[in-house]
User: What shape does this take?
Amino acid sequence: SPGATLAGRIEGVAPAAMAEASVTVYQGDLHRKSSGLGAAGRYRVAGLAAGSWEVTVQSGDKEMSADVTLAAGEDQTLDLTFPTYRQVSGRVLGPDAAPIDVERLELNDPAARGKKFVTVGSDGAFSAELPDGTYAVQGVAEHRFSLQATAPLVVEGAPLAGVEIRLDARSAITGRLLALPPGVSELAVSAYQGRFGQQGRVEADGRYEIRGLQPGDWQVTAYAMPTGDRAFASVTLPAGGPDANLDLAFRSGGLTLSGSLAGFDPVSRYTVIVTGAGAAYTDHLVDVDAGGRFNLSGLTPGHYTLEVRDDGLPLGVHWPLYEGEVDLQADSDLVLPLSHVR
Assistant: This one.
């Protein structure tokens, strides 16, 4: 059967903007057809499959959407009118009424579709054209965190000037990454509260910051790549601040854990996995040399668990050939008895 046709007129677009305006219809992710606006704002999209379609009209930074259901071979008319846009300007402030370090505002009107992004200047100033609505506002920074506004932005019936958008109080964790392992080319740092994680930013000199954190207990983890080393610690952020300063050291201790594998098979490829809660290393993989020995230095005193795996086994069957624990208070040299299962 022939495809359906959707046509109509878009009103509220300035004549000078007709050539750049567009109408796009969507049916899932696979079917989309776009049409520019002709004389008097008219559009026509043919060859559409039957079913439900989303129609989106865009003119500059203005956008509106509607739904339509088409029958097979049907010609349907859909006229749409852009709402009146109001000029809105003001400043973005932090909880202390000072400009805050955000690069854009994310405005979301539940009654409309999509989100509006507004650039914020270095002095906190912003300006935008918005249709009437009640907008939930978030301030977004380059560090991938967001701050929720304490009150919605209400636009209704008139332009707004001198608006103050006050963002909520959040805390930060700052510090330095110390005692970096040799061969590190990239560093990353994150803070976790349960399943929620917030990524931070690390400078070339090892200074880091993680912003936009709510009060409570946080686990801070630093990653060194490509070595795979990790350093971590816990910190509690009280309600209302202050910020926390926390240095993380990858190799903060002077202890060495070494050993040999009893029952060593020269043709196998072994890895020793050392895990230490609250220590400088966690889930650290140590290669075993051709003589069956391993060595891990820079550890802090504490309790560690050990596993030995055979990397030559098929994927998915790297079961531990050894499992054990050690309370490391001084340099230790261990013998780990292997249990081979072939």
Observations:
- The CA atoms of residues 38 and 214 lie 51 Å apart.
